[in-house]
Every structure is written in structure tokens, then in C-alpha cells.
Structure to design on (294 residues):
């Protein structure tokens, strides 16, 4: 797979997660000041950077390509299925869409921000937990394709874009089409996971690497059909 | 720690779906129906996505 494919997947995944992390840092910054909120966020990013180096090193040290392919494939299946199911549920109206403005208002009113140390912990944990999914994608796609630096670069670029727009607006980034991005990334990640897991089990894809875009298309078409079908079921359900 | 694990593997339903599908994939690939794995497993994953979306 090319650098570009890895970078697009990492950039989109990271964008969704950094938008949510920014909302948390913004709420904390308005409570205890930007300097402390940013310090907590940067500490979490440093932990993620160490995890990326450690994770990539651990995967590369395994040596057996099939085992690496299986481990990475399974993690991508777990991640991709979760994101696609969530995006389908939201698209069909079974779950409310994620609302950054609402999340910001809820966190701002929270007692957790009343005390400086507690608020810094909220910012640290927020960035760390949102960033863990970015870490997973960077390590999984990067190690498997040999483009870890490109994947990490794309995630950092997404962080820079979100921070720049967020700093300019000084408001939660509520207009990002989060569910559409989640749906697309879910389809792409599930496709990588399917491709590598089956390959690690000894399956030979008839189209070779071209099976990947075919899988993405299948999941996207299937996901859209499921959204329509579940919407209809929800409409017919007794209220 | 719980948040870390949940981020990596999701909830129990997500994990169970993937465990079952991988088991089915391994059995399919070891059977004469091997060529169908590339179509049946993605369809099984879409069915799992529909199941999880409703939960």
C-alpha cells in the first residue's frame, strides 16, 4: 500500500479524535488557563509518542510476518467494526449524533474542573484516551506497510490543523462531519483488517492488493444499505 | 487501565463478534469452501455491524 493511503487513513482517524480532544482541552483551558491545559495535553502527547515508538518496536521485533499480520489485522477488525457500527447507528437515527457543543457545555459545567489539579488530569486523560485510537492506527497501518513515519506525520498534521482552527475559533469544532468521517474510516479500517487477517490465516486474495478498494466499496455500500434498512425499521417500530 | 483496554478492543459484544468471525474464517479457510472466505467474511462483518448498531 502507498504512503498516500496510509496517510489519508491516519489523517482522517486522527482528525476525529483530535477534535474531541480539543473540546476537552478548551473546556479545561477556560477553567484553569491555557498554559496549564496545554501542558497537560502536551504531556499526554508525549506519552503517546513513547507508546508509538514502543508499539512499533515491539511489532517489528516479532519477526514472523504472519503473526504480525494476524495481530494487526485483529486489532483493526475490532476498531473498524466498532466505528462502522457506531456510524451506522447514528446514521440510522438509533443513536444521537456526537455533539461537540453539547459535550463542551457538559464538561464546562462539571465539578471536575473546579480544582486545578483535577482539571489538568481531565485534559491529560482526555488527550490520552482520544489519542490512543490514533496511536493504534498509526502503529497498525505503519508497521504493516512499513510507513510508520508517514502515518505518524499524518496524525501530527491533523493535530496541527485541528489546533490551528480551534485556536482561531476558540470554540468547539462542532461543524466537523464527524459521523461521515467515522463511517469512511470504519469502512477503510475494517477492509485493512479483513485483508490482513484472512491473509495471515492463509487465504490468498484473488485480486491481490486490488481486493482492498473492492472491500472498502463493499463495506461502504453495505453500510449505506444498513443505514437505510435500520432507519425503516426504526420508523416502523411502535413508539 | 479500563479505558485503555476499551479503546483497544471495545466492549464484550464487539470482542465476541470478532472472535466468532475469526473462528469461522479459520474453519472456512481450512475447508473446501476456502474460495468463498473472501466474500463470506466481509458479509459476516456487515451482519455484525448491523447487530452492534442496534445494541
Amino acid at each position: 500500500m502507498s504512503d498516500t493511503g496510509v496517510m489519508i487513513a491516519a489523517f482522517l482517524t486522527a482528525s476525529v479524535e483530535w477534535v474531541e480532544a480539543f473540546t476537552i482541552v478548551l473546556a479545561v483551558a477556560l477553567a484553569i488557563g491555557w498554559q496549564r491545559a496545554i501542558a497537560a495535553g502536551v504531556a499526554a502527547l508525549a506519552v503517546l509518542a513513547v507508546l508509538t515508538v514502543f508499539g512499533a518496536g515491539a511489532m517489528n521485533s516479532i519477526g514472523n510476518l504472519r503473526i504480525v499480520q494476524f495481530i494487526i489485522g485483529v486489532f483493526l477488525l475490532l476498531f473498524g467494526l466498532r466505528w462502522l457500527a457506531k456510524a451506522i447507528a447514528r446514521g440510522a437515527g438509533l443513536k444521537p449524533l456526537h455533539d461537540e457543543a453539547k459535550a463542551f457545555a457538559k464538561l464546562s459545567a462539571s465539578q471536575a474542573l473546579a480544582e486545578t489539579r483535577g482539571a489538568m488530569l481531565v485534559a491529560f486523560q482526555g488527550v490520552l484516551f482520544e489519542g490512543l485510537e490514533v496511536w493504534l492506527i498509526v502503529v497498525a497501518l505503519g508497521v504493516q506497510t512499513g510507513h510508520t513515519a508517514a502515518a505518524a506525520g499524518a496524525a501530527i498534521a491533523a493535530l496541527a490543523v485541528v489546533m490551528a482552527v480551534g485556536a482561531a475559533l476558540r470554540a468547539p469544532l462542532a461543524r466537523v462531519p464527524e459521523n461521515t468521517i467515522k463511517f469512511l474510516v470504519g469502512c477503510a479500517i475494517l477492509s485493512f483488517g479483513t485483508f490482513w487477517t484472512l491473509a495471515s490465516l492463509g487465504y490468498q486474495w484473488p485480486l491481490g492488493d486490488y481486493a482492498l478498494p473492492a472491500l472498502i466499496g463493499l463495506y461502504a455500500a453495505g453500510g449505506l444499505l444498513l443505514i437505510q434498512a435500520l432507519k425503516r425499521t426504526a420508523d416502523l417500530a411502535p413508539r | 487501565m479500563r479505558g485503555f483496554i476499551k479503546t483497544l478492543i471495545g466492549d464484550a459484544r464487539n470482542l465476541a463478534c470478532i472472535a466468532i468471525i475469526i473462528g469461522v474464517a479459520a474453519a472456512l479457510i481450512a475447508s473446501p469452501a476456502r474460495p468463498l472466505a473472501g466474500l463470506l467474511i466481509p458479509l459476516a462483518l456487515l451482519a455484525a455491524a448491523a447487530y452492534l448498531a442496534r445494541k
